[in-house]
Specification:
11 strands, seven-stranded parallel beta sheet, Rossmann fold, binds nicotinamide-adenine-dinucleotide, single chain, about 375 residues, alpha/beta, binds magnesium ion, 15 helices
Amino acid sequence: MRRVAVLGSTGSIGRTALRVIARQRGLYTLSAITAHSNAALLAEQESAWHPAFVGLVAPGEGGARGGWQTGEGALVDAATRDDVDIVVNAVVGVAGMDATLAALEAGKRVALANKETLVVAGELAAEAGSRGGGEIVPVDSEHSAILQCLAARRPSDVRRLVITASGGPFREWPAERIAAATRSDALRHPTWSMGSKITVDSATLANKALEVIEAHFLFGLPYDRIEVVVHPQSIVHSMVEFVDGSVLAQLGVPSMEVPILYALTHPERVDDAGTPRFDPVNAPPLTFEPVRTDVFPALGLGVEAGRRGGIAPAVFNAANEVAVARFLRGEIPFGGIAAAIERALSTVHGPGGADRESLMDADRRARKVVSEIR
Ligand code: NAD
Ligand code: MG
């Protein structure tokens, strides 16, 4: 029996993870759950699962039940418990970073949906894993696909990774219309149902930049061997081209259940009759097209930040987090998100080093730049 903590259990990935674990009760038990502020749903989950640990970061007035741990330390505490073998990190944003690092340091498997961790602190995560013996297995569908296609082959066997992107709701829109897109336009994702931050990231393509950086750290390949291609049906989850010209892809209907389950079982597979089945005959035709990089500048800005390294990915991530929150509150237009990222990247500079303190300082400075944009 492997014991699981789900951080961000009330979110889109967190709720899906509980559904997946519920079908595999013979193999997995739930030891800990945490949420930011949704006390009502967290209480429902506690009643259904009776985990040993429940953490609520921001309890508000009377939000927490007796026995719950509250405050920011709840994530790290849940992630490092002795009765936890696997930490599903389904927190959104850099708020999930310390829990990932602490879990790796404590020798846990981290089933990582919280891609922001690797973008901001990819090197720190590698160091924490080699010190503590922990490992990351990606939950992101593209990276799960690549992991499955690589099947433990060396980076020298690989010519390039091809990450697929749905293209988001504005794939075919003209540039002027995109610049003025509304909140509800951006939240209408064509193929995936997800939390609001990643849904907006999918509309700007900032999500693909985060994923390119995530792939760089997970699979140890340089940026010029990681490409992005638009695939509107979201059925081919990504591809690996090997040095002999052979290309492997992983396919399936767009559902996070398979990559979440695989992150628990890797490198094994378990029988799960509940995951959605793929029927090639009734699937839509699979099409591929280039990214309109000029119309979606956030992608290029993010990949460039990844190439620069040091604090640049942390600046990119923080600027994007604040810009998306401001867009969702109606404070800046859709086109303002990439502009805000560009502003932060061109004003926040710092030491080449990427220790935790420099990264968090860069994160704070980027947040300030973007929150002051009028
Ligand atoms: P969501 O907004 O639905 O859920 C986020 C969860 O994190 C909630 O439980 C919330 O309570 C918690 N949380 C938010 N802020 C927090 C904070 N400051 N401290 C502690 N907990 C906090 O988001 P989601 O769509 O489930 O995405 C979660 C992560 O998974 C993101 O990094 C996202 O990029 C990644 N991801 C999501 C999907 C998807 O299909 N939803 C796919 C791939 C990757
Ligand atoms: Mg993804």
